[in-house]
Write a structure and sequence with these properties.
2 copies of one chain form a homodimer. By secondary structure, chain A is α/β, with parallel strands linked by helices. Chain A folds into 2 domains: about 1-120 and about 300-330, Quinone Oxidoreductase, Chain A, domain 1, CATH 3.90.180; about 125-275, NAD(P)-binding Rossmann-like Domain (Rossmann fold), CATH 3.40.50.720. In chain A, about 25% of the residues lie in helices and about 25% in strands. Chain A has 9 helices and 15 strands. In chain A, strands 3, 4, 5, 6, 7, 14 and 15 form a 7-stranded mixed β-sheet that branches. A 6-stranded parallel β-sheet of chain A has the order 10-9-8-11-12-13, with helices on both faces. In chain A, strands 1-2 form a two-stranded antiparallel ribbon. In chain A, helix 9 links the parallel strand 14 and strand 15 (about 325-330). In chain A, helix 2 (about 125-140) packs across helix 3 (about 155-165). The longest helix of chain A is centred in the middle third of the chain and has 14 residues, at about 125-140. Chain A is globular, with a radius of gyration of 20 Å. Chains A and B meet through strand 12, helix 7 and strand 13 of A and strand 12, helix 7 and strand 13 of B.
Chain lengths: ~325, ~325
């Protein structure tokens, strides 16, 4: 039995392409004393994966020759730790491979849900990122205007619907008319803007006539700057990602208006990761599950079949081709 | 009896110069029913005065032909309102003139202190800006590193000393060796950097070897960018001013690393004005007065004599020539 691994052959200097990766097979590792062997069921693909190739962030950087890093849901296959038994489903940073061995502290048990993919999308890091970003940092009030970039993406689509439930007027940005239609029809947004069709400042003024109170930013770059100039006094910018800057060797210049507009408009900008709100994790999962059960929160998943498809699927994600949460199903029955 | 007024003849397109202003004399105005006539005692000069010429901020913009706007301490000369009587000292937005008439709602009584200038510096907007910015947004913990730009300025010098009282390691940036010496000797800073002497990123790495936890920014521009790149995870940036960008028609490009570094370092950036913390105003004044009384907080004032000196004094402030709070004494005995 082999352990398929996808390795980053070489860090890209510009745009990431499938050719930067290579598939290899290694023996399945054997867990040592106190260790646990797990098998990857679902592999999360995230824009942040690309940012990890640029160096140290909140997690270890990906170096040339590494098995590509990635967040996974996995099943315990063999355990030398009393806390885990075969069949348990866990969260683990397995990376892009079938099997990995971990110390128990690197694993977190996951409540079995059906479909299991929900534990990676709406109930996983994705959903909780949207939840905490919107409710702890954005804090929209009824009647306020909330703008969300990459609104048809994994985090954006959930963040947008959560803002809607708070009674805000919600405007989404997406890169195609089809995504905009989906945001309006399925997610109930008040407006959706295809940012590729015209100059953004004008479109923002048109669709946010009262200005922007909360901007949930997944992209950075020119869209960040355009939103900044339309922010209302005491507005909040949720700094969740900067995908426009990840897949390039030449990031755009910084946004004009920083820090001047932050000062005169008394804005708050904040970056965060889900672990910053660890104490509220269970409550977040419970509420998200309730909203899904009640049909108030639509879950969009974009599942690619087979580990070997991961390189192409990540490049596609960076080009904006996904609708909702993109992941790779590594084991067919997962 | 005349009311001297200094008018902004024409908004500057580039650098502000004394020639942009003109002195004129008008009759002293007469208060109507319910109105109050006040006389300017002390006129505050602030970098923000220049920003007001660029357009709408948290206050009305200054237009060509306006009496220059400015914050003042004033004395009631005549009152048609039962809440005010001649001799009361009040805060008022008189602007650059001897006399003004106000509705009572535009005036706030000031507790008489000696010297009165303290009500404009450490106990006024300046001191409270430093206090709230550092304690409500920066929130330095003992042992953390706090960096302050324009540290020998009005707000910076107080903010630096407040951070020191919290047990933080405090590093100040200033534009001359003399100011740096003053910061070290009088204000007790741990390090002071003359940012004009060498490349800032290197100086920051040298003087902030553990990185920066709190950056209290008064200047924006290149210094903001250099600080951003040295911030630690979960750092806070107090966005208090952007003086490097005010006195020019060509602001620098925005800082690189926004919003990317905000995301990966989970930073918080926040702009504010003193009125955002109105409820805590009395407590702030009480504590600031205590610290001054105990000799723990040094107050630096840079008082220019005579209303006619205001244009030159503001231009000098924008060029960084002041040490501490610059103001104009309009009435000799004030």
């Amino acid at each position: 039995m082999a352990n398929r691994q996808i390795v980053l052959k070489q860090k890209p200097s510009g745009k990431l392409a499938p050719e930067h990766f290579a598939l290899r097979e290694e023996p399945v590792p054997t867990p040592g004393p106190g260790e646990v062997l797990v098998r990857t069921l679902l592999l999360s693909l995230d824009a942040a994966n690309r940012a990890w190739m640029h160096g140290r962030t909140y997690t270890d950087p990906v170096e040339s020759g590494d098995v590509m890093h990635g967040f996974t849901l996995a099943r315990v296959e063999a355990s030398n730790d009393p806390g885990f038994k075969p069949g348990d489903v866990v969260e683990a940073m397995n990376g892009w491979q079938d099997y990995a061995v971990h110390k128990p502290g690197a694993l977190a048990k996951v409540t079995p849900v059906k479909p299991l993919s929900h534990a990676m999308s709406v109930l996983g890091v994705t959903g909780k990122t949207a939840y905490f970003g919107m409710l702890e940092i954005g804090r929209p009030k009824p009647g306020e205007t909330v703008l969300i970039s990459a609104a048809a993406g994994a985090v954006g689509s959930i963040a947008a619907q959560i803002a809607r439930m708070q009674g805000a007027r919600v405007v989404g940005l997406a890169g195609s008319d089809a995504k905009c239609q989906w945001l309006l029809r399925e997610c109930g947004l008040d407006a959706a803007i295809n940012y590729k069709t015209a100059a953004l400042p004008k479109l923002l003024r048109q669709h946010c006539p009262k200005g922007i109170d909360v901007y949930f930013d997944n992209v950075g770059g020119d869209i960040f700057e355009a939103a900044l100039f339309q922010m209302n006094e005491r507005g909040r910018i949720v700094c969740c990602g900067a995908v426009s800057q990840y897949d390039t060797a030449t990031p755009t210049a910084g946004p004009r208006g920083v820090p001047g507009l932050i000062v005169v408009k008394r804005l708050k900008l904040q970056g965060f990761i889900v672990m910053d709100y660890y104490n509220k994790r269970a409550e977040a999962e419970r509420r998200l599950a309730e909203w899904v059960g009640e049909g108030r929160l639509k879950v969009a998943e974009d599942i690619v079949e087979g580990l070997e498809k991961a390189p192409e699927a990540l490049c596609g994600l960076l080009a904006g081709e996904n609708l909702g949460k993109r992941m790779v199903r590594v084991v067919p029955e997962a």
